[in-house]
Write a structure and sequence with these properties.
alpha+beta; two-stranded antiparallel sheet; 5 helices; 36% helix; globular
Length: 146
């Protein structure tokens, strides 16, 4: 899809959610849609300011808060104390490589046999997400090699 069509699509999505489209909101959302690495606020800020400095850390936080509230992005907590963001809002799980830190999405169906109903009685599950930690293909194949 060319840049102009992508811009129109993003604009329409944001308008459908009732958002006023500011340059910062647009830039943050477009940036998240273009990546799959689950960036932090600082990574988003650096990326969108690389070409045209239009955002501050506060404006990125503000844009993310609004985008999260309307369901266009979600927070992902994979490491203690580190909040990451994802524009893929449909249910999915994550794999985190302990070697290189890469984060990969895992399809929801990967854990289709998970038995939530086996939890102790009295637990009411509203949502869940699984984070699997290990080594990716690249780190696993180089693990232990000199």
């Amino acid at each position: 899809m060319d840049g102009q069509n992508r811009t129109i699509e993003i604009t329409q999505e944001m308008k459908q959610k009732g958002l006023r489209i500011t340059p910062q909101r647009f830039a943050v959302y477009a940036n998240l849609l273009s990546r799959c690495d689950h960036p932090t606020v600082d990574e988003i800020l650096t990326d969108i300011n690389r070409d045209i400095p239009i955002a501050s850390k506060a404006s990125v936080y503000s844009a993310l808060t609004v985008l999260r509230e309307v369901g266009l992005v979600r927070e992902v907590l994979l490491d203690e104390g580190v909040t990451r963001y994802d524009a893929k809002v449909e249910p999915h799980h994550h794999f985190v490589c302990e070697g290189c830190g890469q984060i990969r999405d895992l399809a929801w169906e990967v854990f289709k046999n998970l038995q939530i109903n086996a939890l102790p009685s009295g637990f009411q599950v509203n949502a869940y997400e699984i984070t699997v930690k290990g080594r990716c293909d690249r780190c696993h194949s180089s693990f232990g090699q000199s």
